[in-house]
Amino acid sequence: MKKKTFVGLLVTGCIAAVLIFVAWPRRTVPDATSDNADKSLPSRLAACPHPTPATDPSQPVTVEEAQQGNVTNAPADAPAAASARLDEATLEPLRRAFVAPRFSEDPTLPRERQTLLSNRLVVSPEKRSIPDAASGRQSPTPRGTTPFLVQFNTPVSDVTRKLLIEAGALVRGFFPNNAILAELSPAALAALQEVAQVQGAAEFLPSDKVQPFLASLIAAFPKERTVRVSIQTLAPEDAAPLAAVVRKLGGEVEAASAGT
Fold it and tell me: Could you tell me how far CA 116 lies from the centroid of its own chain?
């Protein structure tokens, strides 16, 4: 059967991919430190109702049914290692049943202050505020940088991008409304204090980079289960170091490519 990539972890502007088998551990997502804590994906996933079980095979099934063996892809005497992998026969009905939490803009706030991600709503501060340092909730890149959503008080343009670059930032992409994804070193983060057009900077956290369906699998299955995923890096040169990290954590790297 032709292999398919089941799920992806998407970072805008990323161009290098690594295909891996990863055993996702159960772990507690750190509480958000902003005013958007109640809008985070883990709490929204927990509040979502589960689909109703159905006997019709064409209908969606729940995660619980798959875990109990109602949805299976291997015979009962299959090796334990093989059954540990979540393959397409298991994932496809779960994917059909999954309803992603919906996030929307806050109508009480100006649209230009809001950045809507797949897992949360980020609101720039009413009073200009820029963090002094990264949170420490993720490892820095090989360049010593941390990804941030830099929020502007003016529309994003070539001028605002140039201001970031002059401050030492590595620009990686645009997020509506009025935000740029950029890698910031400690020096670049400090330099933003002098850029009047910058209203705030919110760290782009690991949980922001995981697709909602994959996040639901992490929460639903034991850490021994594995799934084949595609990881896209911030820069082509990150592919090889990331592959080494994946292997160190017990994952299997199928291929690593530093694309252009």
Answer: 13
Q: What are the φ and ψ backbone dihedral angles of 172, each rounded to 5 degrees?
A: -120, -15
- How far apart CA 166 and CA 158 sit, in angstroms, is 12
The tokens describing 77, both together, are: 């005497």
Structure tokens at 155: 């529309």
Closest by CA to 35, choosing from 106, 101, 118, is 106
Segment 203-230, tens digit of pLDDT: 999 889 999 999 999 889 998 899 999 9
Question: What domains, with CATH codes, occur in the chain?
Answer: 63-97 (no CATH), 114-207 (3.30.70.80)
Q: Looking at residue 76, what is its pLDDT? A: 39
CA distance 85 to 158: 46
Burial class (CB in 10 A: 0-12, 13-18, 19+), 234: buried
pLDDT of residue 238: 92
CB atoms inside a 10 Å sphere around CB 30: 13
Residue 8 CB-density burial (10 A; 0-12 exposed, 13-18 middle, 19+ buried) = middle
DSSP state for residue 129 in the 8-state scheme = B
Angstrom distance (rounded) from CA 74 to CA 83: 7
What residues form DSSP beta bridges with 150?
Answer: 180, 201
Is pLDDT at 194 greater than 80 in this prediction? yes
What length does the chain have? Answer: 260
Upstream peptide bond of 177 is cis (omega within 30 degrees of 0): yes
